[in-house]
Write a structure and sequence with these properties.
Elements lengths: L8 H20 L6 H8 L3 H7 L3 H25 L4 H17 L7 H8 L6 H9 L2
Helix pairs in contact: 1-2, 1-4, 4-5, 4-7
Amino acid sequence: MSEATGGGSKSAARARLLATATRIFYAEGIHSVGVDRIIAEAQVTRATLYRHFSGKEELVLAYLDQADRGIRAGTEAVRAGEQSAADQVRAIGRFIAESIQSPQFRGCAFLNATAEYPDPAHPIHQAVLTLSL
C-alpha cells in the first residue's frame, strides 16, 4: 500500500514528522534544526515531508498550531469543570508551575518562535500573534 492510499500510513507519517519537529524545535530552537535531521529522525523520505508540508516554514506553523491547540484544550478542560473561577485560575497556575519545573522546559514555544523570527511581517511571527488571540 502506498502512503497516499494505505490505511492511515499517510497520517502516521505526518504525525511522526510533526512529533519529531515539535520535540527538536522546542528543545533546540527552530533555526538550529534542518529538515534533513527531521526527515532522518522521523524515518521518512524527503518526498514524504514535502507531501505533507510545503517546506520547513509550514512545518513550523503546524508545530505552533499544535502547541496552541494543546494549551487551549487544557484550559478548556479546566474551565469545563465544576470548579469556581478562582479554583480554575489556581489549577491553570499549578499546570504552569509544573511545566516550568520540568527539566525539559525551554520557555514559551510562542515567545521562542518570535525571538527566532523577529520581523513582525514574517508569516511565523504573524502566526504567533494570531494564535495568541
